[in-house]
Design a protein that fits this description.
The protein has about 350 residues and is mainly beta. It has one domain: Methylamine Dehydrogenase, Chain H (7 Propeller), CATH 2.130.10.10. It contains one helix and 29 strands. The strands form seven sheets. A five-stranded antiparallel β-sheet has the order 1-4-3-2-29, with no helix packed on it. A four-stranded antiparallel β-sheet has the order 5-6-7-8, with no helix packed on it. The termini are far apart. About 50% of the residues are buried.
Amino acid sequence: MTPLYIHRHAQFLRIMLTVAALAAILCIGYYFTSHAPSNSPKTQNTSSLPSVAAAPPLPAELRGYTIAAANTLSGQVTFLGGVSYQFHGAPHGMAIQPGTDRLWVTNSNGSDIWIFDMAQQTYLADVSVGVSPTHVVFSPDGKTAYAADFSESAVSVIDLASLKTIATIQVPGGPHQLVLSQNGAYLYAACPAGGSIDIISTSARAVIGKIPIESGTEPYGIVMDPGKRYLYATDTTYGRVLKIDTQTNTVVATAYVGPRPLLENVIPNSEDVAAAVSGSGEVVVMNREDMRIVRKIRIGAYVDAVAATPDGKWLIAADAENNTLSVIQVANWEIKDVIALPAASYPNDVIVFG
């Protein structure tokens, strides 16, 4: 089996061994049949339907939102205040298909992507992709999805009408997270193993260039500034966030945020971007224009991901070491609640809908 790629740190071996042990002892208690409407995609892999259980409650201040976490170590996709789905696999990255309520969750230890109705919190479909998918993005025309496959050094091209992989793009650097240019012509891939940010033509389905970056840089997370020409990439080696101009394909500014920054999120209705800094256990907020540090919020032991509510009023930070989600009020940068997940969950990503 191709190893699960989470990040290069001392916990990697422990996680691999625990995932293997869980896979050996977990059994499905009962099968769950989706209540999705008839025009929803049909489940394609009926041999591995997840079991379900009650999830931790949704805090009062977050009522009106749907919040989901990908728990890599326990194999659970958890909807707060609703249900938690138990899979044989390792949930890794999460993305909402634009214009829909479809939540896509990559299984980085199982060659597939799970699709949910986020509003109804129901499991809909299983899409077969590469060996170790990590993150997924969607084309502006709503026809195509692209899934990064770190272990196979490739990107899977998925037709959204059929939910089938229709092509594979070789990306030698080993892509972890992807973003699309505003017009959908180019994919930018953060490649930690190759130490590069690769530029992929979506029409040619090939790598056509790289962003010039300092030797030794290890890009991990990458996000696009909505409606603008800049993207922001974390660098786990030098503890930075890089601001990149997609018109010139050059790094135009950097900000030191702390050791091993991982995933990021642009905060809606603001000029800020938030980064999960695993080494310091903080969420670091930067101004997207001048890369000035706005705030550092201490979360816990190992912050892996941060999500923003669509109105920009709240941030949800995932502490993978302590198995918690921290609720941050953006107005004053205060932690209003800490949600405990089951032991050994390892929340690797978190997302908000609503």
